[in-house]
């Protein structure tokens, strides 16, 4: 009787979990439904930062954030062209997302507590690790930020860099003069014109700006970092299925690198691999796709089209690009970095 009772309890528990999973999967996703009805993903990106989002000589957007947008379009439509890019300034990005002008932000946006709890938005999961720094003229002889007593510093409106800079100089009791701009190109022009002694922003953006200067060797990015700036995609609150899609899509491109799946080998691995994790990721077994309402081959299509995280990084801002940014913390955890894919099972 005890065994029969335990079996009955187990059956009821399993049925409860199964019912909960089915109920969760049946919850509508206003954002996904709108994207599918429109036939196009609308993605908010930067107005122009080399390595993240910058038009090339043909006017085609290129960069890490751009590729993350394209990959998400592939996950939904299996078509890399079904995405429209909306360049947004630091001060308008969250307002535009909240107003429904874009479906998602992949726009060098740091995850912070107040952004996550007060704007009606949610950050999703980290896809890039950065930190605040300063760039100065090499001829100025400045080697540490504390040497910039009374310096005029270019900053972007609506960024965490405004507060980080103010907090740092206040903490060491050194005065400085902020000069605030809406866009990075405006700050760059002011820096070149001598209106600012330094530019304060995330180190990756400093490296990107330096690479586009007329003479990059004239500029030095100081080695110190003054904050943690983990970038994430942002979405509107209240759409759990859309949150799941963006979160697990981002995780999938990192997981693909961990598993050694590339654009070159993913087709062969889909047919030959006996690894259960690989078979789940590539849709040979369909449970991952069913849980987020996508095609069973969604992750396979993404990897086949845009590649794994390392491939995306290396062709947009890696050492062989003009930006020339080493992987550093943006390497996977088995290679000494901070990127770590949550288990996809």
Automatic annotation (TrEMBL):
GO terms for biological process: amino acid transport. The keyword rRNA-binding does not apply. The keyword Glycoprotein does not apply. Belongs to the bacterial solute-binding protein 3 family. This is Amino acid-binding periplasmic protein. Keywords: Signal, Transport. SUPFAM superfamilies: Periplasmic binding protein-like II. Pfam families: SBP_bac_3 (PF00497). The lineage of its organism: Bacteria, Pseudomonadati, Pseudomonadota, Alphaproteobacteria, Acetobacterales. InterPro entries: Bact_solute-bind_prot3, Solute-binding_3/MltF_N. Gene3D superfamilies: Periplasmic binding protein-like II (3.40.190.10). It comes from Neoroseomonas lacus. It comes from the Bacteria. Residues 40-269 form the Solute-binding protein family 3/N-terminal domain.
């Amino acid at each position: 009787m005890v065994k029969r009772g335990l079996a009955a309890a187990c059956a009821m528990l399993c049925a409860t979990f199964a019912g909960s999973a089915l109920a969760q999967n049946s919850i509508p996703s206003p954002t996904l439904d709108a994207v599918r009805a429109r036939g196009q993903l609308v993605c908010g990106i930067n107005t122009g930062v080399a390595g993240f989002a910058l038009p090339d000589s043909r006017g085609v957007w290129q960069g890490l954030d751009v590729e993350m947008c394209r990959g998400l379009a592939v996950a939904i439509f299996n078509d890399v062209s079904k995405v429209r890019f909306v360049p947004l300034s630091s001060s308008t990005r969250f307002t535009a997302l909240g107003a429904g002008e874009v479906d998602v932000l992949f726009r060098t946006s740091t995850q912070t507590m107040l952004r996550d709890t007060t704007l009606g938005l949610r950050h999703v999961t980290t896809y890039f690790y950065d930190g605040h720094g300063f760039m100065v003229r090499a001829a100025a002889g400045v080697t540490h930020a504390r040497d910039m007593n009374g310096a005029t510093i270019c900053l972007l409106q609506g960024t965490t860099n405004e507060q980080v800079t103010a907090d740092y100089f206040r903490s060491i009791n050194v005065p400085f003069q902020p000069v605030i701009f809406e866009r990075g190109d405006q700050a760059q022009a002011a820096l070149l014109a001598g209106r600012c002694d330094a530019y304060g922003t995330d180190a990756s953006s400093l490296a990107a700006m330096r690479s586009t200067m007329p003479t990059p060797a004239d500029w030095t990015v100081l080695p110190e970092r003054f904050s943690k700036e983990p970038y994430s995609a942002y979405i509107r609150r209240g759409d759990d299925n859309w949150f799941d899609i963006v979160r697990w899509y981002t995780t999938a491109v990192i997981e693909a690198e961990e598993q050694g799946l590339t654009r070159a080998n993913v087709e062969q691995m889909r047919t030959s691999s006996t690894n259960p994790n690989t078979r789940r990721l590539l849709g040979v077994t369909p449970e991952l796709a069913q849980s987020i309402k996508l095609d069973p081959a969604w992750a396979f299509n993404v990897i086949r089209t845009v590649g794994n995280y390392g491939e995306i990084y290396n062709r947009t801002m890696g050492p062989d690009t003009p930006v020339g940014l080493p992987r550093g913390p943006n390497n996977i955890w088995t290679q000494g970095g901070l990127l770590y894919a949550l288990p996809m099972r």
